[in-house]
Amino acid sequence: MPVEFLTDEQAAAYGRFVEEPTRPELERFFFLDDVDRLGALGESASLKWLRTTSAKMLPKIDLPDLLFEVDSRTGFLDAFVHLGDGRTRSEDSKTSLVALLVSEACNIGYTPVIDAADEALSRARLVHVDQHYLRADTIAAANAKLIEAQGRVAIVEHWGEGLLAMLGYNFSPRFKDLADQRFWRAEMPGVDTGGYGPLEPLACNKVNLNKVVTHRPYMLRVVGPLVTGQVRAYDLLRMFGREGRPTPLGTAFAECGRIAKTLQEDQLGALGLVLNAAVLWTTRYLDASVEQLRALPADEREHDVLNEAVARLSPLKHANLNVLGRYAFRASTPAGGGLRPLRNSDAAERDDDDDDGED
């Protein structure tokens, strides 16, 4: 509604209640019963204590160590079989897989995880594993192992079946209208890419690398001014098409885009898999924390550990997990198949980045 004809005082009051609205007035515009039902639940003192204390007890861990430990309990890395013969790899290939999953999930590329002194972490090995083992069907199989293991942790019974499905995540993004989607393979002279198994019907199209190679110098000349702001994206789009048809330069960029689109699915799948592994790891340690707190004499804990408080804990933690800064890919798992020692929740040495309210 136009307000230009109102006085300044009238315009300031327009659309506002003169005073705090009554419930009957609000009910004219809002379904308050629905709002109340959807409102935030209150938090008891015992819940706040349990959430904070259990979070402080989680061991500190680096992301590679977390993946190695989860694999030692679930064997989820065994789901990554070769594209061609369906067989698993040598044992040191798990090192390559963990490095590759960290690279993809953290979106950092190969360089931070490469170690030229270790064959399993060489660029050539990582590229080979990426091309022949990391794909949608193997990621789905690995996720299935994690979700199955999640259901066997005792604390999950308090979270209910619906929440189990949510916390199991199985984060596997899918493109809209997948049946109509086409994925692309890039074939280089002298390089055997093998078959694509059940994805063969979707990956039957080939990227025309000759167009990319032919126009690469011009593509670089275009990208530079765009990054530095010397040319607008709108002006570039006019260069990519003419009279409804793509120009040769536009076609070259389209071929590159087809490669990126195909790679995106694997990267998002790797991220979802790593998130699932982190949820499972945290669930196991929350379960251990709760059991340890329950075993304490009543006079040594601030509150009783109530089932209704346990039901509202969440495994979505991150303050104890290091995902950036350093990467060591030597399997570090607890001896004898046990758990890492829980931290003392009353210890004075707390890291600056600890956040007890991260749920």
Structural write-up:
This protein is mostly helical and 359 residues long. The protein has one domain (50-337). The chain has helices at 8-13, 23-27, 32-38, 45-57, 63-74, 93-105, 123-132, 136-150, 160-168, 209-227, 233-240, 248-295, 307-310; strands spanning 61-62, 184-185, 205-206, 241-242, 245-246, 321-322. It has a two-stranded parallel ribbon with strand order 1-6. Strand 4 and strand 5 (245-246) form a beta hairpin.
Strand order of the largest sheet: 1-6
How big a fraction of the residues is strand? under 5%
The figure for the number of domains is 1
Reading the helices and strands in chain order gives: HHHHEHHHHHEEHHEEHHE
Q: What gyration radius follows from the Cα positions, in whole Å?
A: 27 Å
- Count of strand segments: 6
**Average pLDDT metric:** 76
Top keywords for this entry?
359 residues, two-stranded parallel ribbon, mainly alpha
Tell me the layout of helices and strands.
Elements: H1 8-13, H2 23-27, H3 32-38, H4 45-57, E1 61-62, H5 63-74, H6 93-105, H7 123-132, H8 136-150, H9 160-168, E2 184-185, E3 205-206, H10 209-227, H11 233-240, E4 241-242, E5 245-246, H12 248-295, H13 307-310, E6 321-322
Parallel strand pairs: 1-6, 2-3
Antiparallel strand pairs: 4-5
Helix pairs in contact: 4-12, 5-6, 5-12, 6-7, 6-12, 8-12, 10-12
Concise summary:
This protein is mainly α and 359 residues long. The chain has helices spanning 8-13, 23-27, 32-38, 45-57, 63-74, 93-105, 123-132, 136-150, 160-168, 209-227, 233-240, 248-295, 307-310; strands spanning 61-62, 184-185, 205-206, 241-242, 245-246, 321-322. It has 13 helices and 6 strands.
